[in-house]
Design brief:
Layout lengths: L1 E2 L5 E2 L11 E7 L1 H4 L6 H6 E8 L11 H11 L8 E5 L4 H16 L2 E3 L4 E5 L2 E5 L5
Parallel strand pairs: 3-4, 4-5, 5-6
Antiparallel strand pairs: 1-2, 7-8
Helix pairs in contact: 3-4
């Protein structure tokens, strides 16, 4: 809480308020992995075996490098070193650079980035796909 004009208390906004962790099997990182809505606190609280990272818009900074770094920082604060799989929906320069620059830290934190190895063809469109077994 911070003091606003006229000594009025103003609540400080965060994407995910502090609190106990929530454990899930699969989490879609909100808003195309934009850093305006996802921070370290998100990954400290929302703990998942699988995170889906969407976003393919470098102009809008999606996916955000800050979000990917927040995953590393938040996961480092977990009490256990459970396996986490990151599933990108698009191949992006941001994702490739982050993967290469932080690969050793990913291994230390038991984070695996899943690359698509399959292609789905529907009518006149084809796209990469991943199979997830929960």
């Amino acid at each position: 809480i911070s003091k606003g004009p006229g000594n009025t208390k103003v609540a400080k906004s965060t994407a995910v308020p502090p609190g106990p962790p929530v454990y899930l099997d699969l989490v879609y990182i909100p808003n195309h992995s934009n850093s305006k809505n996802v921070d370290v606190e998100f990954f400290k609280r929302v703990r998942s075996s699988y995170y889906v990272v969407s976003g393919n818009d470098s102009a809008a900074e999606e996916p955000s490098r800050a979000v990917l770094d927040s995953l590393l920082e938040g996961k480092a604060q977990w009490e256990t070193n459970m396996q986490v799989t990151l599933i990108p929906t698009h191949d992006s320069e941001v994702m490739r650079e982050w993967y290469q620059e932080t690969h050793e830290k990913q291994q230390d934190l038991n984070i695996m980035v899943l690359a698509s190895s399959s292609t789905v063809v529907m009518q006149d469109e084809s796209f990469p796909a991943c199979k997830i077994e929960l």
